[in-house]
Amino acid sequence: MKHLSTSASYSHSPLSRVVSACRVACSLAILLAAAEVAGGAQDGPRLSIDLSSGWKFLLCDDAGIESPDYMAAEEWPSVNLPHTWNTKDILDDVPGYFRGVGWYRKEFPAPAAWAGKRVVLHFDAAYQVATVWVNGRFVGEHRGGFTPFEFDITNLVTPLADNLIAVRVDSRWRRDLPPYDMDFNMMGGLYRQATLVVTDKVFIDSSSVTTPSVSRQEGVAVFESTIRNHGYADASVELVAEVFGPDGKKVQSLASTVRAGAGQAAEVRQQTDRIENPKLWSPDEPNLYRVVFQLRAAGQVVDQVESPLGFRWYKFDPQTGFFLNGSHLKLRGANRMDDYPGLGWALPATRQVKDVQLVKDIGANFIRLAHYSQHPAVLDACDRLGLLVWEEIPFDGEGKQLAPYAGARGFAENAKQMVREMIRRDRNHPAVFLWSVGNENLNGSGREEWEAVAQLERELAELARREDPTRPTALAIDQYDRADLVGLYDAVDVVGLNIYRGWYGGEIEDVGNILDDVHRKHPDKPIIVSEYGAGMELGRHSEHPERYDFSEEWGRQLHEWYLKQVNARPFVAGSAIWSIFDFGAEERTAQTIPHMNQKGIYDYYRRPKDVYYFYQSQWAQAPMVYIVSHTWTTRQGKPGETKTVKVYSNCNRVEFFLNQKSLGAKQAGEPLEWKVVFQSGENELRAVGYKDGKSVADSMKVMY
Question: Which pLDDT score is estimated for 401?
Answer without folding.
Answer: 61
